Amino acid sequence: MNLLHYAGIQVRNGETRTIEDTIIKEGRFRLFINGALFSRLVASDEMLRELGAGFVVNQGLATSVGSVTVSGEDICVTATVHGDLEKEIATTGSVSVRRPLEKVSSSLRITKDEVFAITREIETEVWRKTGGVHCSVLFHEGKVVIKSSDVGRHNTVDKVIGHAVLQGLDLSRCVIGCTGRQPRDMVAKYAYAGIPIVISRAASTDRGIATAAESGITLVCFSRGERFTVYTHAERIRDLFPEGE
Fold first, then answer.
1. Number of CB atoms found within 10 A of residue 207's CB
2. What is the pTM of this model?
3. Residue-wise pLDDT tens for the chain (245 aa)?
């Protein structure tokens, strides 16, 4: 990942000093789907194949991808696009309607301790160096599979899910931990992908919570230190209440 160094003047504890700070570089890329330019993305310049794969799946355009290649600033994805979206993408370069959200079905359950353990993993070396990126981490069958840092919170989710798609992992057995807020458009990504449990250090919105409830997603927010809040489908946190309650 491209990191830059900039001079700055820092004030801390009443003292002023000159410092050199590590700053994340913001990149711009073009996403092609089946040869047609679909979108322009602002992202960090790593895990671009995963970004392309995850974007297509998480936007509800396809459930899988054939191939992803990266050349310079171009991310080229081949995929079997749902329904009439192929023609719409080819002629307009966008889609006005996404397919309806499907109910996420999964028998996956985790414990409170696992929520805390996942939360502790939601950081990367780049985040520690810069403080200027979002982070996401993907757990599969209880193990960390991949971490992602990016200037965009959407991108980090696309990248870790894209990794799972390219590796053929069962998304219904995955948990995502992330730093970003959870409004409706973020929660919709998990629903399209089939992710059953999402843990965020940040807040949600009313529509984010409603979308998680409707889609069958367990949404955990404000997971920091020794606390977290479960908004929807709490049955997937199996020891949330003492036995008998």
1. 14
2. 0.88
3. 678 888 987 888 888 899 898 888 899 999 999 998 988 999 999 999 999 999 999 998 998 999 999 999 999 999 998 876 665 565 555 554 456 888 999 999 999 999 999 999 998 888 778 877 899 999 999 999 999 999 999 999 999 999 999 999 999 999 999 999 999 999 999 999 999 999 999 999 999 999 999 999 999 999 998 999 999 999 999 998 876 55
- The CA radius of gyration of the chain, in Å to the nearest whole number, is 19
For residue 182, give the nearest of 159, 199, 162 by alpha carbon.
199
Q: Which residue's structure tokens are 């997971």?
A: 223
The one-letter amino acid at 50: E
Using CB atoms within 10 Å of the CB of residue 112, give its burial: 0 to 12 exposed, 13 to 18 middle, 19+ buried: middle
At 90, which amino acid appears? A
Q: How is domain 112-236 classified at the CATH fold level?
A: Cytidine Deaminase; domain 2 (3.40.140)
Residues 188 and 208: their CA atoms lie apart, in Å, by 8
Where do the H-state alpha helices sit in the chain?
48-58, 85-92, 112-120, 125-130, 153-167, 184-193, 206-215
Q: How far apart are CA 189 and CA 172, in angstroms?
A: 14
Which residues, listed in sequence order, are joined to residue 197 by a DSSP beta bridge? 175, 218
Complete DSSP assignment for 83-115: TTHHHHHHHHSS-S-PPPPPPP-----B-HHHH
Residue with tokens 């749902």: 82
So where are the chain's domains? 112-236
